[in-house]
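job 3f2a | input accepted
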Amino acid sequence: MKIGELSKKSGLSAHTLRFYEKQGLIKASGRSESNYRIYNSDDLGTARFVKRSRDMGFSLDEVETFLSIRADKPAHICADAKNITELKITEVEQKIAELQQMLVALHKLSDACCGGKESAELCSIIDALEENEGALA
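job 3f2a | predicted structure (137 res):
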């Protein structure tokens, strides 16, 4: 199959597939006589694997590690993949905590503002954003 068909079947754009190919995550099985990339069902499986990994938030480096584990499962242990996943969980939990703090700060900004038709010269949101970081916390 050509890249357009791989794109449709994998859910990745042709541009993304080419980018992943340049990164070494996906490779075409071959080239046609007219030099088009040709992909097979294994390539489709890899593209879907990469997409699912990226959808879960794994970085390109982490995906590359997963692909190396996938390519040679007997040479790896389950803990190799688990460690990467546990680190990602910690990272996501930290981001969630940061987002929750941001949400609290946004509510404070919104609650302090009357939201009326008055001039923005007295807008508490604009004033707070013009002040230093300590004023928002």
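job 3f2a | Residues 78-112 form the longest helix (35 residues).
job 3f2a | closed
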